[in-house]
Design a protein that fits this description.
It is built from two helices and no strands. The longest helix has 9 residues. The protein is elongated.
């Protein structure tokens, strides 16, 4: 999952906030 979210910092942050 991390590799998929790497190019998407916004989604990465959103995932962490969830």
């Amino acid at each position: 999952m991390l590799n998929f979210y790497l190019p998407f910092p916004f989604l990465s942050i959103f995932f962490l906030l969830s």
